[in-house]
Amino acid sequence: MTRKNAPIAVDAATAVEALREALTAAGIVLPSLGTDNAYPALNLINLGRVRADIALKFADTLRRGCA
After folding, report:
1. With a threshold of 0.85, does the pTM exceed it?
2. Which of 1, 6, 35, 67 is most buried (most C-beta within 10 Å)?
3. pLDDT tens digits, residue range 2-48?
4. Distance of CA 62 to CAs 3, 22, 36, 57, 66, Å?
């Protein structure tokens, strides 16, 4: 049996750059966006801290993209 949401092997640095490009195209900058090197085997992405207005813009962009 396969898990519906099973993780896909992806390089964290590649994912960060893809996300950064997409966010930039939407006019959103997450200053702390980067790889989380504390546990390299987990390939974690650190989205960091953002101002409230940027978080709202991010949420709005995601909503429009999911519609």
Report:
1. no
2. 35
3. 566 767 778 999 999 999 999 999 999 999 999 999 988 888 999 99
4. 25, 11, 23, 9, 6
For 18-38, b/e burial (b = at least 16 CB within 10 A) is eeeeebeeeebebeebebeee
Alpha carbon dihedral 43, 14, 17, 38, in 10-degree steps, equals 20
Gap between the Cα atoms of 30 and 48, Å rounded:
7
First to last CA, the chain: 31
| Cα 37 to the center of its chain, rounded Å | 15
